[in-house]
Design a protein that fits this description.
Keywords: Coiled coil. The chain is mostly helical and about 60 residues long. The chain has one domain. About 85% of the residues lie in helices and about 0% in strands. The chain contains two helices and no strands. It has helices at about 5-25, 30-55. The chain is elongated and about 45 Å long. It starts with a helix and ends with a helix.
């Protein structure tokens, strides 16, 4: 995985995180909130891994 791929993936996951946060904020019931919370956690986990990989690559 090269540096451009990492940067692109980080931007993509940041966008997904923003969408998940919007879904959470606009949820009308508990189920929608739970699903959005799971999506938020997944995005945060992905970002943490990508940030770690970027740091290892010196980005």
């Amino acid at each position: 995985m090269n540096s451009e791929n990492i940067k692109s993936l980080i931007r993509q996951i940041q966008d997904e995180l923003m969408l998940a946060e919007n879904k959470f904020n606009n949820a009308l019931n508990q189920t929608d909130m739970d699903i959005a919370a799971i999506d938020i956690k997944a995005c945060e986990d992905k970002l943490n891994l990508l940030y770690k990989k970027a740091k290892e690559m010196g980005l």
